[in-house]
Amino acid sequence: MTFLEIKNLHVKIEDKEILKGVNLEVDKGQVVAIMGPNGSGKSTLAYALMGHPKYEITQGQILVNGEDVASLGADERAKKGLFLSFQYPQEIAGVTMSNFLRTALNAKRKEKISVLDFHKLLHEKMDILHMDRKFALRYLNEGFSGGEKKKAEILQMAVLEPTISILDETDSGLDVDSLRVVAEGVNALRNKDTGVLLITHYQRILNYITPDAVHIFMDGNIAKSGSKELALEVEEKGYEELKTS
Amino acid sequence: MLKETISKKFVEDLSKQNNEPSWLLDKRISAYEFFKEKAMPNFNYGLNINLDIALDLEKLEALNEKVKRKVVCNNKEVIIQNFEEVLASDDSLLKEKLMTICVPALDKFTSMHNAFLNNILVVKVPKNVEVKEPIEITTEVNSSVLFDHLLVIAEEGSSFSLVEELNSKSDDGSYVSKIVEIFAEENSKVDYGALQNLNKESFNFIIKRAILKNDASVNWLDCCFGSKTTLSEVTSYLDGEGASVNNHGVFFGNDKQQFDLVTKSIHNAPNTYSDIFTKGALTDFSKCIYRGLVKIQKNASNSNGYQKQDTLLLSGDAAADSIPDLEIDNSDVKCSHGATIGRIDKEKLFYLQSRGLSKDEATKIYVKGFFEELIRKMKIEKMRENMHDIIDKRMQ
Hints:
Helices cover 36% and strands 26% of the residues of chain A. By secondary structure, chain A is an alpha/beta fold. Chain A has a single domain (4-244), classed as P-loop containing nucleotide triphosphate hydrolases (Rossmann fold). In chain A, the strands form two sheets. Chain A has a six-stranded mixed sheet with strand order 6-7-8-3-9-10, sandwiched between helices. Chain B contains eight helices and 18 strands. Helices cover 22% and strands 41% of the residues of chain B. A nine-stranded mixed sheet of chain B has the order 1-4-6-8-10-12-14-16-18, covered by helices on one side. The chains are: A alpha/beta, B alpha/beta.
């Protein structure tokens, strides 16, 4: 069974249908890329998968490990193995990254992790992402630069170890160096037990993270599917030409 | 002890019992006259909400009990005396300073306080003495009525922290009147923290005021968690050039708690600085009215006065309103003021929940973070822990 199966997903926001029957699968060990122009519904897919209350699922299923999670809240979906790296992570004043991640990890686990073990785990993951350990003592995303926010999202992913991570435009707003660090981080965390749904506008992040499949998103649905070469084709021709071809 | 109500005779008896000097009796009597004359305020500020305060001061029981208090101070140079000790030794300082910042004529509550005052603590830190460990004062209210006064003299160049905790001993309601007067002389540095956690049957009246001389600094952190109704004013008079004040406050109401909070900075000299910052959360049916004022007098050129107040509403029935006010008489100043009353941003909640936190867990961590900005300024670890405990309990 594929870990994440999206079947005929229709989603609307305030009476406007955004997703129009999406079918998509992401399995453990896979990287599936979704590319598409602005307004094609990519971010809506990310939010709908994670259970944002503003996005109403009118039809279809989101199957996680065979179970439909469409009616569950975000926290329940997280506990079942989904993770969303936000395009615009929220700033939470007064809550340190370290405190937050320990609370989140404990919420997912049956047994509480000891403070000592947690710090060991946190430092290990920070080292993989080449992050200064002082980072953990800062308030969650508060005053972080764009690049720091994206790194912080990947750190959360690394600590929480979800089965499927949805990366919503993690590459946007990053300079080349930051992009490389973030992409290397994602690669370092890839293994046979985790999958990635990588949502992006640009092809450039796929130079660092090689996808197993590429889907082109247009007007609320997948318009074209292919292998990693499809991403290069989009880069060359643009989305408009693909639409007519 | 027999139950006695408020009367002039009670004032005279009280003074006699304490073997007080005549100046103090005179002061009490004149305060009593004010008390009889002054009308009870109506607590109506023309805002969207009103507080419901049914309290008849005239019918209060006038008790003459001494409060239970624990004072910790590791520095032997600091002079700490209670009422009896002051009267038994030299009362000239008391005569000179008592009720001179919080004058009895102010209102009915203040005049009553001065007339029936029966617990005083004087803390004097001598010239250039630097107290490393904080001075801790823990007061346990064990009577139905308490008039408690703290007089702080920070002599020139002294530096210290003083932390007060005010708790109830039982679940019985009390009328607790608390006044703090701080005299910050030239170049002195005073950190004052207070944690009020009276039981929910109590009524708490608070006025805390400081006068600052040249280059003095006072940092207030006043935290109100307890009592059914709290009327609180914290005011700083920046009388000396270069004086600076951080006037910070925290409140958290639940059940039917009511808060009527006032913070003021009065700039009376050039190059002065004040920062008012109050944060509060309200849940259940609790209410808060906040009024703030930054006043810059004509001679206070090159001064900065900031004012900010944030209230978080955690239930549909909780209500708050605020008036941050500025009065500026000098154009050569920097001032700002702002107030927010809002609920937790849904996008922030979703973000936290997407990491596996339930709605309750996400709310709790968010609210704790909201207060952390001010709690972390508290120098004493034990006090920070107490505040975290109180907030934890409120969030359950």
